[in-house]
């Protein structure tokens, strides 16, 4: 289980202080898919960086399976928004996916297996020797997802991973994430500012307020587990849920403007 308790982050530079996160508390059960949604600048990236041990919180704590996070936790992988910057352009697709496995000291034959399985899972078999810059944006993001999946993480953090791809590719990648989540039984925390994406993907949606950020509300997404872009998004329950999330986010924005 991932536990975030009383998390606060204040950035300080000289005499300037920015309180990015005020007091965040929520949990993600093992094997759950939780979407975090909040307005732009509410501190979503700051939160994920604290969870992944890349940034030290000012106070509060993050625990994974009861253990406090201090530095990047071993069973965690992160997929960032900017695929262009997260892949090494001088390395082939295979080498990019394999690199974290080398760092994890996985044996060579097992690495080959994991890379092959992960590329197959994201529909990129045959691109092993290509370089990232020879692929489309959507394909590059698939490579980044394959790299995270090959690592066999217990927890997968995704920070607005589809913000930079076109709408059709985005829909395909959303379905890919749900498929991988169901197949691999991994715990997923998915951050997005897109309300429809959060409701479509999540089993739960945690709504954040504007900065200084607190948890505004939480919602269980009681849509069927089998989802598809056409029918799920037209389901009256989907529309009800997205309206609830939208209203909460609007309330958060109004409260912040006062
Ligand atoms: N290194 C930093 N130093 C000072 N302030 C920072 C730093 N990083 C972020 N901030 C501030 O903290 C707040 C939250 O930023 P953050 O990037 O976490 O938000 P976000 O929700 O991910 O934004 P967006 O949705 O626009 O990507 C913002 O006010 C931002 O200006």
UniProtKB/TrEMBL annotation:
Keywords of this entry: ATP-binding, Nucleotide-binding, Transport
CDD domains: ABC_NrtD_SsuB_transporters
Domain ABC transporter: 2-235
Nucleotide-binding found in the keyword field: yes
Molecular function as annotated in GO: ATP binding; ATP hydrolysis activity
Family annotation (InterPro entries): AAA+_ATPase (IPR003593), ABC_transporter-like_ATP-bd (IPR003439), ABC_transporter-like_CS (IPR017871), ABC_transporter_ATP-bind (IPR050166), P-loop_NTPase (IPR027417)
One Pfam family from the record: ABC_tran
Protein name, per record: NitT/TauT family transport system ATP-binding protein
Species classification: Bacteria, Bacillati, Actinomycetota, Actinomycetes, Micromonosporales
């Amino acid at each position: 289980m991932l536990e975030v308790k009383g998390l606060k982050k204040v950035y300080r530079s000289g005499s300037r202080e920015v309180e990015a996160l005020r007091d965040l508390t929520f949990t993600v059960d093992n094997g759950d898919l939780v979407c975090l949604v909040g307005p732009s600048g509410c501190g979503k990236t700051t939160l994920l960086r604290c969870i992944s041990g890349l940034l030290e919180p000012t106070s509060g704590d993050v625990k994974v399976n009861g253990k406090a996070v201090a530095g990047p936790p071993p069973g965690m992988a992160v997929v960032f928004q900017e695929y262009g910057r997260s892949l090494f352009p001088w390395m082939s697709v295979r080498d990019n996916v394999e690199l974290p496995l080398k760092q994890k000291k996985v044996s060579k034959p097992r690495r080959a297996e994991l890379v092959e399985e992960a590329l197959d899972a994201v529909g990129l078999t045959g691109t092993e020797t290509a370089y990232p810059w020879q692929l489309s944006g959507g394909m590059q993001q698939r490579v980044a997802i394959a790299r995270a999946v090959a690592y066999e993480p217990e927890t997968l953090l995704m920070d607005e991973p589809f913000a930079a791809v076109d709408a059709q590719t985005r829909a395909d990648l959303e379905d890919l994430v749900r498929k991988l989540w169901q197949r691999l039984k991994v715990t997923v925390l998915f951050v997005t500012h897109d309300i429809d994406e959060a409701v479509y993907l999540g089993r739960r949606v945690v709504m954040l307020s504007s900065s200084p950020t607190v948890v505004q509300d939480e919602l269980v997404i009681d849509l069927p587990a089998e989802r598809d872009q056409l029918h799920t998004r037209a389901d009256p329950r989907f529309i009800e849920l997205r309206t609830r999330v939208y209203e909460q986010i609007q309330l958060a924005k109004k409260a912040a403007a006062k």
